[in-house]
Design goal:
2 copies of one chain form a homodimer. By secondary structure, chain A is of the alpha/beta class. Chain A contains 10 helices and 8 strands. Chain A folds into 2 domains: 4-15 and 99-230, Rossmann fold; 16-97, DNA polymerase, domain 1, CATH 1.10.150.240. The first copy, chain A, has helices at 16-28, 37-58, 65-80, 86-93, 105-113, 126-136, 146-149, 156-166, 180-188, 223-229, and strands at 4-7, 14-15, 100-101, 117-122, 142-145, 173-177, 192-196, 218-220. In chain A, strands 5-4-1-6-7-8 form a 6-stranded parallel β-sheet, with helices on both faces. In chain A, strands 2-3 form a two-stranded antiparallel ribbon.
């Protein structure tokens, strides 16, 4: 029945927390030894989410996610009085284009690709999804992003766009994410749903929701488990 | 300077003529021994082009390329009194989703991928480009199609869309095609241009334009030659 799997990228396929923390420490180069960079990155990601929600509420048209991250970084650094130059902030924002894959991502996707069409649906800019995927070696058959629909997930138009471009009915597509709001939104349109637990999504001190639920068609511990459950 | 290569698919990366001819003979199963299937396929492709131009002139909104091929097949078969059933015509139209790559395509793209972002810009439906690419093993970093812009090549909006999604300036992108109208249109927007000669695009009796021209940044005999010239 399911012919295509559509994946969230930031958090589900890639470990943004450790990547961005490492980049922050590299750019800071030890000048702010008392800063808890893990907490800064969690706040940064939180600011990004709030800005996306705000953009959606105001329906102001498209905003590049790169610019959203850049502005949210200013807020979090300025709140904490962390002095990084504009060039350093630009450089650090590029970390979101260099995200490392979770260790199971490439081997899991490689197995899943033998039987399914694999695509992304990310809120990140198309160019960022391409950069992350190329850098990480994520073997998608197609890259789709909210930018192509002009609205962010969980707007139903973003999922509907994917069904149109895949030429499939929603029931033939499984949305895979570590964020329940994402797969719930796809499920409301008739997509199949797979929840993947990513306990380290926000780092060791984070509070990632990893609770399996029968409301989803599948619950998996990682992409290898997903491949097992889908018979790949 | 160039960071991404954008490829036409039907004819440039894939050998539609031999694939569709073979499928026509398979579906016909010898019932019409006097039919020149190569000529039928050339007329079919011609009917598809005429229909795209017509759609563009009338600006009637999006038409799926699958439906364009299906209607153009009716015309060419009915003109010649070739009796295939509706189911057989549906089956034969699917041949355009199963196109074989030119022998140099996968090895050439694999070399080019080490240095460049590789994407498509096809007039075929997104779902068809995905099906062809997955079947042929074409290792794109991203699949773009005219469907995503809502206008067919050579409409400048289709090339502009690709530049936006790649996050690059036109001069950082090279359009690669065996059709001069396609790379000329991209060139008018500031893209770099590469012409690839495909002498067998319309089969042994076809009249493919394979003349190199200094109006393009590169002229190549196939994707391996393109990789050589681009230092990959």
């Amino acid at each position: 029945m399911v012919k295509a799997l559509v994946f969230d990228v930031q958090g589900t396929a890639t470990d943004f927390h450790s990547t961005v923390c490492d980049e922050a420490r590299r750019v800071d180069a030890g000048r702010h030894p008392s800063v808890d960079w893990a907490e800064v990155v969690r706040r940064w990601r939180g600011g990004y989410f709030a800005a996306l929600e705000d953009a959606q509420r105001r329906a102001r048209g498209w905003v590049s996610v790169h610019s959203v991250y850049r502005a949210a970084l200013d807020t979090v650094l300025d709140e904490r009085g962390i002095g990084l130059s504009a060039a350093e902030r630009d450089e650090l924002t590029l970390a979101w284009r260099r995200l490392r894959p979770w260790p199971d991502a490439v081997p899991g996707l490689t197995r899943l690709k033998t039987r399914y069409t694999l695509a992304t649906l990310s809120n990140a800019d198309v160019s960022a999804v391409i950069a992350v995927s190329k850098g990480a070696g994520l073997p998608w058959d197609a890259v789709f992003a909210a930018e192509m629909a002009g609205v962010f997930k969980p707007d139903p138009r973003s999922y509907a766009m994917v069904a149109t471009y895949l030429g499939l009915e929603p029931v033939e597509i499984m949305m895979v994410a570590s964020h329940k709001y994402d797969i719930r939104a796809a499920g409301r349109l008739g997509f199949r749903t797979a929840f993947v637990a990513r306990p380290m999504e926000f780092g060791a001190g984070g509070d990632a929701d990893v609770t399996y639920s029968t409301e989803f068609d599948l619950n998996a511990s990682d992409f290898l488990d997903l491949a097992d459950q889908l018979g790949c």
